[in-house]
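Figure S7 source data.
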Amino acid sequence: MQFIDLKAQYRKLKQDIDARIQTVLDHGQYILGPEVAELESRLADRTGSKYCIGCASGTDALLLAMMSLGIGPGDEVVTTPFTFFATGEMIALLGAVPVFVDIDPETYNIDPAKIEAAITRRTKAIMPVSLYGLCPDMDAINAIADKHGLAVIEDAAQSFGATYIGRQSGNLSAIGCTSFFPSKPVGCYGDGGACFTSDDDLARRMLEMRNHGQDGRYHHVSIGINGRLDTIQAAVLLAKLEVFDEELAARQQTAATYNNMLRESVRTPVVPEGYTSPYAQYTIEVDDRDAVQHALQQAGIPTAVHYPVPLHLQPVFAHLNLGEGRFPHSERAGRRVLSLPMHPYLEYDQIEHIAKTVRHAVANVTTVTK
Ligand SMILES: Cc1ncc(COP(=O)(O)O)c(C=O)c1O
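Tokens for the predicted pyridoxal-5'-phosphate complex:
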């Protein structure tokens, strides 16, 4: 059994993906070829954003978003410590300081009620993360940002396809950033990402900055990066977009089946009324994670932990002096979360087998510790 079965997906889409790649090989425009613009237009339409800027990874998307806002040394960006490292890493890479705010333990997302206390005169932006595919309460976050004159960047790396009160993730704030890492809800065959915005000026700056700050060939108006999305990756994504809605429905069906089979035994994901999730991860919480993970491994079921160590406890952020106990909900989640296999090609029998094994493991662990 695979944690994410990319080969099953390829078997299904082989003809389209191969044809799309072959077209690129035939026309040979590997850098910013026509597929990139086609994909950007399709993704902008889908999210409802005026602009989509394809880029080389979700990490670069975050970088470009912050660069376009002029974030740099001396600035602060408010974010969550319970996320993949890139979120805090890109803030620090620009010389700014990540200011962490604990999560709401129900949703694992930044707790909007705690954001205002973290804002200082150095704060430039708030960067919430739509973790596991679930958006935070973006209206509440945007309202705080408006009050203080801050930008909001949604780290939507895990949430392409999610909706929040009828709106698409990526188009919920000034800038949304997503990732097309292969295991993401829409993944390419390498690295890829995109920024979304409806602001003309920010879009122009991100477009320039992803291509060495050029506003025309060999005419550089800002310091940028080589952060372009490869044409071949765009071609793969165009083929995958054709089946994305079908895959999204399959993911949500898988999550519903897991929920029904597991909710009596473990804490299953919360998706509040008015939200939908693509379930980039299907993540449960258990008391003795090591034991449960071991039991699943013995039964041939792969699992993963997203993420064991919150950012404030990472060695590289030790200088921020945010020790153990500073963000208790994030730390507790880091000790307890466990992601189960999740992809659109999981079969009912497999889900049943996984759920049964989880239930047995949890019951055994409880018996032993009682
Ligand atoms: C929350 C979050 N932010 C940023 C990233 C970075 O994306 P990428 O791996 O495409 O650079 C990821 C990807 O794993 C992520 O999960």
